[in-house]
TrEMBL record:
CDD domains associated with the record: CysN_ATPS (cd04166), CysN_NodQ_II (cd03695), CysN_NoDQ_III (cd04095)
Keywords: GTP-binding, Nucleotide-binding
Upper taxonomic lineage: Bacteria, Bacillati, Actinomycetota, Actinomycetes, Kitasatosporales
Recorded superkingdom: Bacteria
Protein name: 50S ribosome-binding GTPase
Annotated PANTHER family: TRANSLATION FACTOR
Domain (Tr-type G): residue spans on this chain: 22-247
Coiled-coil stretches: none
Pfam families per UniProt: GTP-eEF1A_C, GTP_EFTU
Amino acid sequence: MTSNLTSEEQAAAAAVERSAATSQLRFATAGSVDDGKSTLVGRLLHDSKSVLADQLEAVAHASRSRGQEAPDLALLTDGLRAEREQGITIDVAYRYFATPKRRFILADTPGHVQYTRNMVTGASTAELAVVLVDARNGVVEQTRRHAAVAALLRVPHVVLAVNKMDLVDYAEPVFAAIAEEFTTYAASLGVPGWGSEGNPQENWCTAIPISALAGDNVVTPSANMDWYGGPTVLEHLETVPVGTDPSQDPARFPVQYVIRPQTTEHPDYRGYAGQIASGVLRVGDAVTVLPSGRTSTITGIDALGAMVDVAWAPQSVTVTLADDLDISRGDLIAPSDHAPETTRDVEATVCHLHDRPLRVGDRVLLKHTTRTMKAIIKDIPSRLTLADLSHHPAPGELAANDIGRVVLRTSEPLALDAYEDSRRTGSFLLIDPADGTTLTAGMAGDSFAPSADGAEAARGDEGWNF
């Protein structure tokens, strides 16, 4: 089939095949307290043979010291001493593992309400969220909270893992009722692709009945639930689509470092290094540098020491331009025909992360990609109540874990995309200028607009896809 392809095309095809074989999925787990998140992660690592012998022995020893006969697999992820002593997850635990089909970066996030901000941290870069539900309790307030956070962060895929099915006699009606309730709620969150008819991502959520403790449908299919014909958790993680086509997104290149060697061999060289946030860059492209608005043309792209004609997200490259422009760290290079508008007035949905409240009039630093500037909180129009998706107007401040709307005024023009268009260039952080503490995570634009009436979502024919 490759006989009619040029050598360059064959090399590109081989690179695509290698990339597909070793693709990477970032995913996060979330759920209420004692829903079994850490046990699920431990089971996933154990049954996929991703645990070293000494790690397993350490877990077995810790389990015996607590009077447990069998190893408590939750201890594989609950690494803090306070977590092991209390049997809860406090901080985000990152784990790395791989199967022959895919590499994984896993963020095991806490279930307590006061640690919801930790889920925001873990899910902000995730391509999939695993939301656990205890089959005995069904969908609870914290389940709805985690679904809303996943919607807020535009996580592309969701797995509803209905855990502890062994404690409800593996009953299909219990699972079906929970899946239907969760889907109806999540479809009301108003995010395109989440259950919307005709959308290519209409199977946005895959519901899977599991028992993390017994291993049912985690890595191997369950013999106790022959009524379920869908994938196991690992099978779904290995096959869910990852990433997007870079050519479908406008190019965004935040400048991280300006390279000027000023050597005898390269007296006039000026290169701009960074990571492509989205889209594709090509030699010959007409580009605009923001916020100055100056224009030029790409004359060269250096990718890992090799000169190339084209590069795409998320490659790290050095770009050279035809004109000697005043460009520094924090500037954004974008195609002239698809450049974002600059503004000093920002409206955004935010999740407040710090124990100190965020108030109107606060002076902060705003960090967007590689650019940091001063800003002031002009208004906090509303705070979202996740229990019923209602908006509390003019709250005056946002406390830790609160999600709300803010209006900011920046000291300099900012090239900001809408978060719904780009998770990378539509997001920002608010930082305390006194000590550099991260205060708030922001998503530009109207990234979260729940529907008051909700929406019904139809069940798929196979695998409980909703």
